[in-house]
Amino acid sequence: MNKKEQLLKIIEVFEATKPKPETELSYENSYQLLVAVILSAQCTDKRVNIITKDFFKTFPSYEKLSLAKHEDVFDKIKSCSYPNNKAKNLIGMAKVLKNEFNGIVPSDIDQLQKMPGVGRKTANVVASVAFGKATMPVDTHVFRVAQRIGIVKTSKTPREVEDQLLKIIPKEKIHDLHHWLILHGRYVCKARKPLCEECKISTFCNYKKSL
Fold it and tell me: What is the number of other CB atoms lying within 10 angstroms of the CB of residue 36?
């Protein structure tokens, strides 16, 4: 069984067990999603959702955020990781969104990355979740799980994993696979102690076979 065949078998299991995977971040529009994804770097979605619930009451729009003082944004997000840098990036993002994109969150990966705090992973998430683009965001979960189960070769960078996955994923499954791998890594294929006995795809997992 080659890697593409292995992946297709895994997708069959994911489709049967969770046919409609979605992000666990709470948002109502592309601006809110962009803020949430920026905050989610090295931070749990659960914590981000707690933060944004109050954050969006104070900064309901990019206009409000673009005019905010650093200390005011920092105060709202101080319970997340790297609040100082993220406060700076959020204000900078809002200003670029206002001045360069007329307040419209772009769907293009390269355009998204022109905003502070928006790297390739964040841009891919926004393009995929907000606009339905066939992009493959690679966060820590996807990076770990894809290599552990063996659907990609051992890689040094998220971009390498992204490129390998895009070569073997059916285009219509890219959006869902991103969520499936994240959720699998978050709740089953955990970093330190993967729950192999509970895993529904263990039959097709190289790591399980090596135990």
Answer: 23
